[in-house]
Amino acid sequence: MRTLALISTASALLHSQAPLRSSTPLGAIDITNRGYVRIDTEKETVAHPKAAPVLDEVSLRKCVDEAVQDADWHRPISVLGSTGSIGTQTLDFCRARPDRFSVIALCAGANYKLLATQVAEFRRTVTTVGISDGSKLEPLKEALKAAGVDCASLEIYGGADAATACATAQGADVVVTGVVGTAGLPPTVAAIEAGKDIALANKETLIAGGPAILPLLKKHGTAMTPADSEHSAIFQALQGVPPNGMRKVILTASGGAFRDLTAAELADKCENEAEWVRAKATTHPNWDMGAKITVDSATMMNKGLEVIEAHYLFGADYDDIDVVVHPQSIIHSAIETQDNSVIAQLGWPDMRLPLLYSVSWPHRVRMPQDQWEPRFDLVELGSMTFKGPDNDKYPCIGLAYAAGRVGGTMTGCLNAANEMANEMFREGAFEYLDIPRVIEAAMEAHKADFIQEPSLDEIIEVDLWARRFVKDFASAKKEVFA
Fold first, then answer.
1. Is the distance from CB of 305 to CB of 250 less than 8 angstroms?
2. What are phi and psi of 351, to 5 degrees?
3. Where does the 1-deoxy-D-xylulose 5-phosphate reductoisomerase N-terminal domain start and stop, copy by copy (predicted)?
4. CA distance 141 to 162
5. Residue 98: band (very low, low, confident or very high) from pLDDT cuts 50, 70, 90
6. Listed residue (348, 351, 332, 350) closest to 380, CA to CA
7. pLDDT at 277
8. Span 292-308, average pLDDT
9. Is the pLDDT of residue 188 over 60?
10. Measured between alpha carbons, how far is 433 from 132 in angstroms, rounded to an integer?
11. How deeply is 139 buried, as exposed, middle or buried, from its count of CB atoms within 10 A (0-12, 13-18, 19+)?
């Protein structure tokens, strides 16, 4: 591939206005006198532009070599939370493009049956398997045997260390962190320390652990690319923008399940139709997501958490991060640059798109259209609408901004209190309006023990404290109304 006969083509190139075409084992290469190389394979086109024209054989050979490298890449990945929404959608594109992605490790929480099915499907490349619920380890092994998988050929882990073992699996270059909540923090830290790149689908890692995670990334020279739609949109919009070129981050939000109700109407529903509210909050109007994040979208705490994540990922000041309600979920977020331009990323609401970019960056991967969403069509879309968030209806946004401005362990307190309140709401122990109330109470109580520059151990300690606070709050409420 690298020994192409380019001497004659270089000479011809310098004296011809016509593009030249050569063949390689990878596909056909087009070379133009403007210094542009394009490789056409069966599945995609890889373009490699040069800043200056190709002038001689040496520069031509270098140009072709770089284009071939751009076309001939492969990513071995580890998927944490493989049986959840993030994990199954990640495996969708691994399944569609095995030439680009190989699955090295799979880790689930408790769903051993689906995990065994996934391991059986990707058995050609999988070396490491984990299940965080230790009681499911033996059932997992039995399910693997029933699926015809040779367990002796695998490293299989169960319990608290399973996710960390998969995150550090030998041979994986990038780790998709699809674990919900701060449970994703320890394996993410371990992956960074092992030199793995991170496709960040677990926003709590930065929200709670940002003060400790960012120095760790710098120390180990690893990359962290966002895998959620909003931060992926910002990340994509920033490609080609010079340092200090961004003035503002614009985070878009669908508005969640209650976007069509006023604050007064929602309060009335909460008082008189509590079970309708509970069912409605767990159904998202646009996205196919897990239960926790769907409820977070209903309260718009999800957007508040994304404000904090944007601060850590992109260095944006909280005064320079705006939230805009965009019910169609077509503009996934945008940036405003110093010259007043606005750069946005658009697309149908499909979580696989940001996931795909997070593990393939800086490349773009063509997916089979019969397995993917229809191509984006502005005419079919027709129109888009925008409005500011109702702070009375969505107090969680204000709580997130307040926690972010304080920084330190306050963001971890906010996150843990929200996780526990969200879970207890879904289980019926809390009502919808209890969620922001208990979070605010936890933040107020945490002021006495706040730490500005916490260690990872201190971050985890605050996380556990906030969860206990919410449980105690629920117990006290139960006693009052018993």
1. no
2. -65, -20
3. 77-210
4. 14
5. very high
6. 348
7. 81
8. 93
9. yes
10. 32
11. middle
Per-residue pLDDT, 292 = 86
CB 225 within 8 A of CB 235: yes
**Longest Cα pair distance anywhere in the chain, in angstroms?**
90
Residue 7 has pLDDT above 50, yes or no: no
3-state helix/strand/coil string of 30-68: EECCCCEEEEECCCCEEEEECCCCCCCHHHHHHHHHHHH
Residue type at 474? A
| Sequential DSSP letters for 190-205 | HHHHTT-EEEE--THH
Higher-confidence residue of 183 and 252: namely 252
d(CA 452, CA 409): 6
224 vs 314: CA distance, rounded Å: 11
CB 468 within 8 A of CB 217: no
Whether 60 has a pLDDT exceeding 60, the answer reads no
Place of tokens 């926003």: 203
* CA separation for the pair 100, 180 (Å, rounded): 26
Asked if residues 328 and 226 have their Cβ atoms less than 8 Å apart, the reply is no
Domains of the chain in sequence order: 7-71 (no CATH), 75-226 (3.40.50.720), 242-348+368-403 (no CATH), 407-482 (1.10.1740.10)
Residue with tokens 């960012």: 214
Instruction: Please give the angle made by the CA atoms of 246, 251 and 254, to the nearest 5 degrees.
Output: 160
In whole angstroms, what is the distance from residue 411 CA to residue 312 CA? 11
| pLDDT band at 183; cut points 50, 70, 90 | confident
* 3-state DSSP assignment of residue 409: coil
Q: Are 79 and 187 in contact (CB under 8 A)?
A: no
